[in-house]
Structures are given as structure tokens and as C-alpha cells.
Amino acid sequence: MPGKRLDQEERQLIAQWLWDGLGYSEIGRRLQRPASTIQREVARNGGHNNYRPGAAHQAASERAMRRMPAVDDLDVDDEAYSFGRSPGEVQEFHLRLVASFVQTGIPKTAARILAEIFMVDKGSLSATELVLRLSVSPGTVSRSTSYLQDLGLLRSERDGKRMRYFLDDDIWYRAWLSSAERNSVWAHTALEGAEIFGLDTPVGARLKDMGQFFSFVVVDMESTRKKWLDFFEKKKRAREKARDRATGDASAR
């Protein structure tokens, strides 16, 4: 049944079997569906303890009335659940990952998008895939991905008529570099303000403390940047050597 949408009867069975305590894999086996399909259906419609088949079917019908994407826009089998990964453990980690992003100040929808892309092995999803996975509007995806790109956490490319979003190997370095640049701006601005207000005034003293603090942070971050670039370059050379060896072995055979 791959590619065929869940019908109302199947959703009723999912609700009953969840109540009976069955896992996603067993429910998927009984419905002849990938476990990832069951997990995604439950997750987007209230979760394990609040899944309501009637409301889920109505929401699915409303989504179906929107613009239908091309078949190649979608991933039928979710990569996050391949390689024998447990759907329950994957879902639990997914929630923890979103929560960790939110705790660092990333808005919830942007955090969900970042987690979704992190949890596919190819490290990229199209705008259409994000709309369907998160059950949000294209405008919401556009705004949230723009926010993540401003932080240096995502890269976008036009893939035909679609926009596709990627994670790069140096994602954290670029995000960190953006943070370092902000710290440098704060340091210079605060020290300039201290001079304007006067170092012997309460405002001037406050701005001086701020400027000195971020100056120390910038120095430490520059040292860390140099260490990371050295480490990253060594790792890159090691990967290239391993790839060259693999290519040589294949040629020899």
C-alpha cells in the first residue's frame, strides 16, 4: 500500500491498537504500512496519548485540498527510521532535540524544521516536504527557514521549482562565527558608549564592564576558531585519503 493515503478505517484501527498498547512497528505490520508512516500520522495528530482518528482524518482531508505536490517531492519511507532504528526511540529523541533548540532561544517552528532536517540522513528537505511533515503553511516554512538562514544554521538552493534546505558539515562553525561577530559588535559598541558617557559615571562604568566582558569572549572565541579550523582541516584530509584508498582498491579489483 505504499503511497496510498491512510483512510478513516485505518485511522480508527490505529487509535484502537494504540489504546491496546501496540507499538508503531506492529501497527504498521498489521496495516502493511511502514512504521514511519504510523509514527508520523500519530505525531502530527496529537501524539500517542491524544490521537483522535476523526480529527486526524478531517485534518488530512483539509491538507489534501491544498496544492498537491508532485510525487517526487515526497519521501514515502522516512530515512530517520531506516537502518533498524526504533521508531519509539527516534520519536523520543526528536522531541528532546526540538526542546533543546527551543531552550537556546530558537522559536518552536524553526526548531521543529531544524530537527526534521537533522534527522534525515541526506541532511536536506524541500519546502514541500517540510510543509507536509509539520502540517504548517508554506509561508510559515518560508519565514522560519529565513530565520535559520540568518543564524547560519541552514543553506538553501533552488531545486527545479522547489526550494531545498540543507545542513552543511560546517553548520556549527558558521553559526558560531555569526555569534562571534555579534559579540565583537557588542564589545566595540559598549566601549564606545563608555567613552561617551564617561568612565566615572554609572552608565559609563556599566558599559565598560559590558565591553570588557565581550572583549574577553571575542579573544577566547578567536582562539577556539583557530583550533577548530586546524581540526577540521585534518579531518578533511583524512576523509580524502580514505576516499582515495577506497578508489584505488576498487580500481585494483
UniProtKB/TrEMBL annotation:
<dbReference type="InterPro" id="IPR025246">
    <property type="entry name" value="IS30-like_HTH"/>
</dbReference>
<dbReference type="InterPro" id="IPR051917">
    <property type="entry name" value="Transposase-Integrase"/>
</dbReference>
<dbReference type="Pfam" id="PF12802">
    <property type="entry name" value="MarR_2"/>
</dbReference>
<dbReference type="InterPro" id="IPR001845">
    <property type="entry name" value="HTH_ArsR_DNA-bd_dom"/>
</dbReference>
<dbReference type="InterPro" id="IPR036388">
    <property type="entry name" value="WH-like_DNA-bd_sf"/>
</dbReference>
<protein>
    <submittedName>
        <fullName>MarR family protein</fullName>
    </submittedName>
</protein>
<dbReference type="InterPro" id="IPR000835">
    <property type="entry name" value="HTH_MarR-typ"/>
</dbReference>
<feature type="domain" description="HTH arsR-type">
    <location>
        <begin position="90"/>
        <end position="188"/>
    </location>
</feature>
<dbReference type="Pfam" id="PF13936">
    <property type="entry name" value="HTH_38"/>
</dbReference>
<dbReference type="InterPro" id="IPR036390">
    <property type="entry name" value="WH_DNA-bd_sf"/>
</dbReference>
<dbReference type="InterPro" id="IPR011991">
    <property type="entry name" value="ArsR-like_HTH"/>
</dbReference>
